[in-house]
Design a protein that fits this description.
The protein is mainly beta and 573 residues long. The protein has five domains: 20-122, Immunoglobulin-like (Sandwich), CATH 2.60.40; 129-234, Immunoglobulins (Immunoglobulin-like); 240-317, Immunoglobulin-like (Sandwich); 322-402, Sandwich (Immunoglobulin-like), CATH 2.60.40.10; 405-490, Immunoglobulin-like (Sandwich). The chain is 10% helix and 46% strand. It has two helices and 44 strands. The longest helix is centred in the last third of the chain and has 42 residues, at 506-547.
């Protein structure tokens, strides 16, 4: 039987004032020993119980001589009784109605002995349940929370309410408890129903409510607890909060802004008024308000309130911006030697970092062009960022083209093997000039020239020749701006020539030009001296021819003329 784990089937208490007590569990078998000593000459034994008015009702008989057992026709005990040889009476399927005073009788010819036994029946109630639970509770309102029901108990139990493990004591207009006990007339079992009316506070959100039933069993007092229940507690909003929902900590132009307004009530408010900079009236919306592609004029103070404007909260939003103006920008073409002012102007919501890049290489300083050179040409990028604002970066590009007419300088030298000469045509200009070599006089074109790499508007075209006689070579450089022609006399291979080196760097170019000017000055001075000496010699020869016609000159003059003539010859040489 299911109750055997909790209780003994019965228990017998020692006589108190001459009475024995048997504690039985409802539905189990009641066993009542006869506590009399079997006397000599025993004829039979009987069991009876006493009615409330004291009248006896006999229920069982056993003869000591015939060993026979007879049970009286009592409807309540039909097929439930069993009387053993030692006169122990057993009653199957214990009922509440079995709570009586039973008497064991042993009869001899001259005496009747009796010993009463009191039967107590106990029934454990079912686990209590909280029924008719409230959908929700409201602060400042006394409301029926639920009913705690414990069924089929005997004797009756006591119901107690708990909140978070602590006993709820009745408090007027706050905690109201009422208990109702109903007896099933057919079984005699009690059903206890305790109702709880409760006025919650905001702190009762998530509180656990439970009830217990305390009852008596054969072994003493016991308690059974219900499953705990949590109720939704409704309370009004006391504070409104506005917040900006964003994946980034900062907002920039072009971003979307989502404002969320919330109240701390339960249930939370579903509608709010949002106040936007520049708008006088509040905008009615759900708990979120979205602004897309915001501009810098969206910077300002944002508010939200309940629909009745009773509560309000505010926040400040800064929309960061970054403007960049590059002058000039795009593709710009200038002539070599010209000046080009360049400016990169920044306007931003915070201090911005600016840097320049030329042909994918970061520059140490901003570009400045007072006299453009070919090496100044390239792709320039002015770039700026707001380091505190993720993704806010601007840049603009200047593509600078430096143009120039072709400039030519020719050089020559005899190679170390003395078998050939190298003639170089140094060319500057942009767009890159096309170079052509010709031989003056014959007009033939030389197609075996080799060109160096075109860097910063400069390159060289080189030919190697072995002329058997003196020749004049012409270098022609031509681009979209102009056609430039320069010629150079080259001696036969048998005459060595030592000209300036072919390759020069830009740093030495000015020094080389100064040396070239000095050499040209010396050559011109020598040519002028030779010219003067020639004129003097011509005058002398003319004078000598005139003097020879006069025969009357003396010999001293002839000798003097000879010496002058020798000196003149030396000067000519």
């Amino acid at each position: 039987r299911k109750h055997l784990n909790c209780f003994l089937s019965f228990s017998v208490s020692p006589p108190a004032l001459g009475l024995y007590t048997v504690n039985a569990v409802y539905g189990d078998t009641i066993i009542m020993p006869c506590h009399l000593e079997v006397p000599d000459g025993l004829m039979f034994g009987k069991w009876k119980y006493e009615m409330p008015n004291g009248s006896p009702v006999f229920i069982a008989f056993r003869s000591s001589t015939k060993k026979s057992v007879q049970y009286d026709d009592v409807p309540d005990y039909k097929d439930r009784l069993s009387l053993s040889e030692n006169y122990t009476l057993s009653i199957k399927n214990a009922r509440i109605s079995d709570e009586k005073r039973f008497v064991c009788m042993l009869v001899t010819e001259d005496d009747v002995s009796e010993e009463p036994t009191i039967v107590k029946v106990f029934k454990q109630p079912s686990q209590p349940e909280i029924l008719h639970q409230a959908d929700f509770l409201e602060t400042e309102k006394l409301k029926m929370l639920g009913e705690c029901v414990a069924r089929e108990s005997y004797p009756e139990g006591n119901v107690t309410w708990y909140k978070n493990g602590k006993v709820l004591q009745p408090v007027e207009e706050v905690v109201v408890i009422s208990l109702q006990k109903i007896v099933d007339k057919s079984t005699g079992l009690f059903t206890m129903t305790s109702s709880l009316q409760y006025m919650p506070t905001k702190e009762d959100a998530n509180a656990k409510f439970a009830c217990t039933v305390t009852y008596y069993g054969p072994s003493g007092q016991k308690t059974i607890q219900s499953e705990p229940v949590v109720f939704d507690v409704h309370y009004p909003t006391e504070k409104v909060t506005i917040q900006v929902l964003s994946q980034r900590s900062t907002i920039k132009e072009g971003d979307n802004i989502t404002l969320k307004c919330s109240g701390n009530g339960n249930p939370p408010p579903q509608e709010f008024l949002f106040y936007i900079p520049g708008e006088i009236e509040g905008i009615r919306s759900s708990d979120t308000y979205v602004m897309t592609d915001v501009r810098r004029n969206a910077t300002g103070e944002y508010k939200c309130s309940l629909m009745d404007k009773s509560m309000m909260d505010l926040t400040t939003i800064t929309v960061h911006y970054l403007d960049l103006q590059l002058t000039p920008s795009g593709e710009v073409t200038k002539q070599i030697g010209e000046a080009l002012p360049v400016s990169c102007t920044i306007s931003s919501s915070r201090n911005a970092t600016v840097f320049w890049i030329k042909d994918n290489i970061r520059m140490r300083k901003s570009p400045s062009f007072s006299s453009l050179q070919y090496q100044d040409a390239g792709n320039y990028i002015c770039e700026t960022t707001l380091q505190e604002v993720e993704g806010l970066q601007k840049s603009k590009t200047l593509k600078l083209i430096v143009e120039g007419k072709p400039q030519i300088k020719m050089t020559k030298k005899t190679n170390t093997n003395k078998m050939s000469k190298t003639i170089v045509c140094h060319v500057e200009g942009f767009p890159k000039p096309a170079v052509q070599w010709t031989v003056t006089g014959s007009g033939s074109i030389i197609n075996k020239a080799k060109e160096t790499k075109y860097v910063n508007g400069r390159f060289s075209s080189k030919i190697v020749i072995a002329p058997e006689e003196n020749v004049t070579l012409t270098c022609i450089a031509e681009n979209q701006l102009e056609r430039t022609v320069t010629s150079l006399n080259v001696s036969a291979i048998s005459i060595p020539e030592y000209d300036e080196p072919e390759d020069r760097n830009d740093d030495n170019r000015e020094k080389v030009n100064d040396q070239a000017k000095l050499i040209v000055g010396i050559v011109v001075g020598l040519l002028l001296a030779a010219l003067v000496a020639g004129v003097v010699y011509w005058l002398y020869v003319k004078k000598s021819k005139t003097a020879s016609k006069h025969v009357d000159k003396d010999l001293g003059n002839i000798e003097e003329n000879k010496k002058l003539e020798e000196n003149n010859h030396k000067s000519e040489a």
